[in-house]
Design a protein that fits this description.
By secondary structure, the protein is of the alpha/beta class. It has one domain: Rossmann fold, CATH 3.40.50. It has eleven helices and five strands; from the N terminus they run αβαβααβααβαααβαα. It has a five-stranded parallel β-sheet with strand order 2-3-1-4-5, with helices on both faces. The longest helix has 25 residues. The radius of gyration is 21 Å and the shape is globular. The protein starts with 18 loop residues before the first helix and ends in a 9-residue tail after the last helix.
Length: about 270
């Protein structure tokens, strides 16, 4: 029996956080993320964070909070849309292999390789045989990378149908947010039942030990963001002991030579 129900049957989590509590928890999680990123910079670790979900589910806001305060040169955010003509001539995973992070780097995907078994499946952009075999191809892709030391965090952001409608209308009513809405969004929203079926198949077939799925089901943006950061901190922090970086003696000597600076006893 599958452990995953249809998304619309998952109980949505609400949040009653005060502004102060939300900001306090958010700041703490962002500091922990920076500590983990610095750890990976020192040790050569790398991570892939894949975020999927409904239109207007809050993926962009979650990513903004994820990258805030991180060292920008070693984290890449990939916004995945339709493949280019060049990419269309290659295997659907090629463009994701091409974006695999180098050691000491993190890659965050705003939509992922799961488009093959979601939008491409539903819109007929690939054949039934192609999207059906994609589950095994994706599992092998993730297993190969996990075996080479890549840590996977896969987040699926779920909101209710009514909340999605409210957020889309809000975008239409705000001129500076209208760029987020396209005609194709309405086509996708109208096929919610088909997407629910496709999401369930995706969760059932690609929730693995090396790359498990984490579903965040809530209509509360603040709860979604905190939950997403907590999951990333938990997975990337497993087996990691964060310790203050020791001062390199040569660096200390250089500072002394130039400025006469010496480390204090409690800074050693």
């Amino acid at each position: 029996m599958s452990k995953w129900p249809v998304l619309d049957k998952i109980k949505l989590i609400d949040s009653s956080l005060t502004d102060e509590e939300y900001e306090r928890r958010l700041k703490k999680l962002q500091n922990q993320l920076l500590d983990l990123q610095v750890h990976h910079l020192r040790t050569g670790g790398r991570a892939i964070i894949g975020i999927d979900g409904w239109d207007a589910a809050g993926k962009g806001g979650l990513i903004q909070r994820l990258v805030f305060g991180l060292e920008p040169r070693s984290v890449q955010v990939w916004r995945i849309g339709a493949p280019t003509p060049e990419e269309q001539g290659k295997h659907f995973l090629w463009r994701f292999w091409d974006r695999v992070p180098a050691p000491r780097n993190w890659a965050i995907f705003d939509r992922t390789w799961y488009g093959r078994v979601l939008v491409e499946r539903i819109e007929g952009f690939c054949s039934k045989a192609e999207w059906q075999r994609a589950y095994d191809e994706i599992n092998e892709f993730e297993k190969t990378l996990a075996d080479s030391g890549v840590r996977f965090v896969k987040l699926l952001v779920h909101v209710s149908e009514e909340e999605q409608k409210k957020r889309m209308i809000s975008r239409l009513e705000k001129p500076h947010k209208r760029y987020k809405v396209g005609v194709e969004d309405f086509r996708n929203i109208a096929k919610r039942k088909q997407y629910l079926e496709a999401y369930k198949d995706m969760l059932d077939k690609t929730d693995t030990d090396h790359a498990p799925w984490h579903v965040i089901a809530t209509d509360d943006k603040r709860h979604e963001r905190l939950a997403g950061l907590e999951i990333v901190v938990d997975i990337l922090g497993r087996g990691v002991k964060i310790a203050p970086q020791e001062l390199d003696p040569e660096v200390a000597a250089g500072a002394f030579k130039l400025w006469g600076w010496k480390p204090k006893k409690d800074e050693k």
